[in-house]
Amino acid sequence: MLAVRYDAFRAPLRLLELPDPAPEPHGVVVRVMATGVCRSDWHGWMGHDPDIRLPHVPGHELAGVVEAAGPGVTRWRPGDRVTVPFVCGCGTCRECRTGNHQVCEAQFQPGFTHWGSFARYVSIHHADVNLVRLPDALDFTTAASLGCRYATSFRAVADQGRAGPGEWVAVHGCGGVGLSAVQIAAALGAQVVAVDIADDKLAFARSLGAAVTVNARAVPSVVDAVVEATGGGAHLSLDALGHPSTCFDSVACLRRRGRHVQIGLMLDEHATPRIPMAKVIAHELELRGSHGMQAHRYGEMLAMIASGRLAPARLVGRTITLAQSVEALTSMDRFEGVGVTVVIEP
């Protein structure tokens, strides 16, 4: 199969012919029809993820068609159109038994714990637990964009953040994750404040439903700007970027008994950010992480897409070939472009 591989962290990625994978007894092989380019893959290439073993094929946001299934698979057969969460469960551990596959004790992550979807084929373990059937009306490019950023944002806003109608939701960072969160929060009836340093991303956030936008470079204090815009602070605030400054601002801009959800990865030198803990205690703030979304929770999100309440296709910024993914992935730290980049020629 044709695939992108790196043999050392921060080393050049190469387009190679590699052996086709075979399905595990409990798994399937998916022919990749589309796969997203995500900053988490950039973190992996940089060496920030301890689960990666070299050499490695990145890619974790995928949609495609089941090519082959192992003998233990009962729910899937070749030809089925599928996607998969970027965090997959084993189905048998304590967390999986309570429905929390996103924090499985033995989780499988294509593109991190195992080879990923920057390839013609990818092997997916525990298929009966982890695969999600795609509606016929949902194209592969849009489906691939759901896998990490959109699904993670959906769970962060709807489940972890519990956004409700009329509440103020602040979104710090308007990349793929943040823009997804803006659209989802607005669809749930919240009033959204979008924060970024790029006017084009803020304009896009307004088109997706943000009621207020704040350019962090144009105000003396992001926290003060959000508190003023929301009449006392956000009910829910999300750090969709993953940086010490956005994390601090997200917590500090909350009103009393507000809720902060951390979506953006905090790795390497950013792993231990400063938190206004005195305010967390005095105002009884709630701090939560959000780590993907279980396959069994996709139904509500897909129903909202089918009804038109959510439109993830609007977040696809550009489509590229597998060869072009090499440059796209290694330049993710420059935060160029608006929306999600999807590889559509694996």
Mean of all residue-level pLDDT scores: 95
Q: Mind telling me the CATH superfamily name of the largest domain?
A: Medium-chain alcohol dehydrogenases, catalytic domain
CATH-defined topology of the largest domain: Quinone Oxidoreductase, Chain A, domain 1
CATH class wording of the largest domain = Alpha Beta
Report the biggest beta sheet as strand number plus sense, adding barrel if it closes: 7 strands, mixed
- In percent, how much strand structure appears in the residues? 15-25%
Multimerization status: single chain
Task: Please tell me about this protein's structure.
The protein has 346 residues and is of the alpha/beta class. The chain has two domains: 2-150 and 293-345, Medium-chain alcohol dehydrogenases, catalytic domain (Quinone Oxidoreductase, Chain A, domain 1, Alpha-Beta Complex); 153-289, NAD(P)-binding Rossmann-like Domain (Rossmann fold), CATH 3.40.50. The protein has eleven helices and 15 strands. Strands 3, 4, 5, 6, 7, 14 and 15 form a seven-stranded mixed β-sheet that branches. β1 and β2 (14-17) form a beta hairpin. α4 (140-160) packs across α5 (176-187). The longest helix has 21 residues, at 140-160. Keywords: Metal-binding, Oxidoreductase, Zinc. Its cofactor is Zn(2+). It comes from Anaeromyxobacter oryzae.
